[in-house]
Amino acid sequence: MDYRVAFVVAALLLGTTSVWVLLASRNARPRDKRTDGSRQSAWTQVDVRYAVVALLFLAFDMEMIYMFPWAVAYRQVGIVCCDSGRWPRVRLEARRLRSMTVTLANAALAMALLVGGAAWAAIVDHVMRSGVKGGSLQLADRVRTFLSLLFAPDPGHQRIDRVLFRGAAPVAITAVGLGAIVVPIGDSTAALPGPQLAVGIFFYLVVLDVMAVALFMAGWGANARPGTEAAFLAGAQLVSYLIPLGFAVTGAVMAAESLSATTLVLHQRVPFGLWQPLGLAIYLVAAMGQTYRPPVDLPVGGDVDVRVEYRGAARRLLDGSLYAVWFLAASMGVLLFLGGWRGPWLPGQIWFVLKTTLLLIMMAWLGVRFRRLTMAQLIRGAWLVLIPASIFNVILVGILMMLAS
Amino acid sequence: MNGTLSPPVEWLLFVVLSTVAIGGTFRMLRTMSMVRSGFSLMASFCAIGGLFLLLSADLLASMQIMMYVAGMLVMVLFMVMVSPDPGGSMMGIAPPEETGPADEYVCPMHPDVRSREPGQCPKCGMALQPAPEHHAHGSASHVKDHGQSAVQHGHMSSGMEMDMAMTHEFTRIAAVTGFIVALGLLGAIAFAPWPAPAPIPALDSARTIGTELLGRYMIAFEGAAVLILLGMVGAVIFARRA
Prior knowledge:
Structural class of chain A: mainly alpha
Mean pLDDT of chain A: 78
Radius of gyration of chain B: 25 Å
Order of helices and strands of chain B: HHHHEEEHHHHH
Number of strands of chain B: 3
Structural class of chain B: mainly alpha
Helix content of chain B: 55-70%
Order of helices and strands of chain A: HHHHHHHHHHHHHHH
Shape of chain B: extended
Shape of chain A: globular
Distance between the termini of chain B: 50 Å
Low-confidence stretches of chain A: 26-44, 80-95
Number of helices of chain A: 15
Number of strands of chain A: 0
Largest sheet of chain A: none
Number of domains of chain A: 1
Oligomer: heterodimer
């Protein structure tokens, strides 16, 4: 395994974004201690069951840790462990490349996916919103506003928690950039160390966890009521949607016997989404919850928003990281369920972009079509519908695999 | 180690990660803000995950980071929900109180235990505190305010002073114990017969662990599953009652 990629990407992103945020937000006068009581009204409204759901989430989180090794070994050992090697194992040993050039190439690919993916996701989002709602495109205007705001100073206010407030954007960008190192976009990139990482998919889920932490840091660090409420909502999304996401992914992992993104794709002569449509559907909904897309965008939508106190560079970085994590989720969906870059006639990269765009459009359409869910609705929906359905999906996949033998 | 990094880089990463790991815990102890201390601890655990990565334990590293990121975030949420002062402003502003000799001392846990002299509670062994009515006559009025704000938050309904310094007799015992244990561990590190460097482990650690879990360690695996299930059932029962 080559972890140099991860360290290179982390160092680059964390360094540059921190410097950027610090430079661009020189106007703010930070203060360590918080003294205003406006926050308190936020936590008194939280239902006591929130705590229980959070505890349940931790239990399921632990369960998932056992789940993935089991899913990888399922085909080999079956339901009860007896004769291993009953199944002819597909041997897919792509070339392992180990050199500094390869590390840098992987890091560069991750950066390109981060920046290009965020831009592409933003464009798709904008086109879908304005197209469906009948507005005009005005892409040029949007780009100009974006650029002009990029270096706008942060007005700040006196009560922010400096460390958390400044740290949120670098943490978010670094998390998404690290997630992007495991994404292969074609045959030529499939042999890179990141896509071959033996824990690739798990790594991606960890990254989504960290994204929630970044949003919590942003909301809490702002030390204002809307931000704090939104921070709680970000926590609610995490405890609701990560579990169905993990279980939906488990189906694909069982079929491919691997957590590596490249191996997953190479196993999909028939895309997993065709015989695991339930898994794909759950993945899409849960991924929207974990990447804060409408209609499940409570922490970043409307008046209650973790970014409400942010201006300038930090705001743009948070916006960009949200688009980037959305793109990352869509591309992971393609790798897990739609056969990745594989497809007839066209080159792999084109197929990858087409499929990813398809998923982005589907998710964006859901956002335009449905009204924003409340916190109670989203927790209820996740725990009463998505999680049981995703566990059912795991059992279903297991039975199908048994029958296919 | 995993052999793909050159030794100087490996050492550099090791030093950086262990500095973050130790610095994070130190920061956690130093800050008054519960949210900050939670995030510091999270950073510390993530750095330990990075150390696992240096040892080629990629699955373990991912688990470590995932569990502690999610766990610490939930812990922070809980602290914010139940604490009257999650941001640490009250504890940060009020200095530790210098109290003169009081007339009467009382146990913080057992209000009926009263004594003319400072000492320990015969029931629980905690250090006796100056009784509140005498304290209120003292010069430091802001301490009284502090006590009242605690009463408002419903945590100190009996109207006693909180032991903000958090120092009592046990800390000394704890410090000595910690020191002895640390010495023992250092001695163990220094004198243990370390095995020769193992060969680089199998590349797909998830498969290895999965096969082992369903084979040799089946009992432990199922035991953990039952325990987690019990936790879930317990939480749901608690929720229904609430």
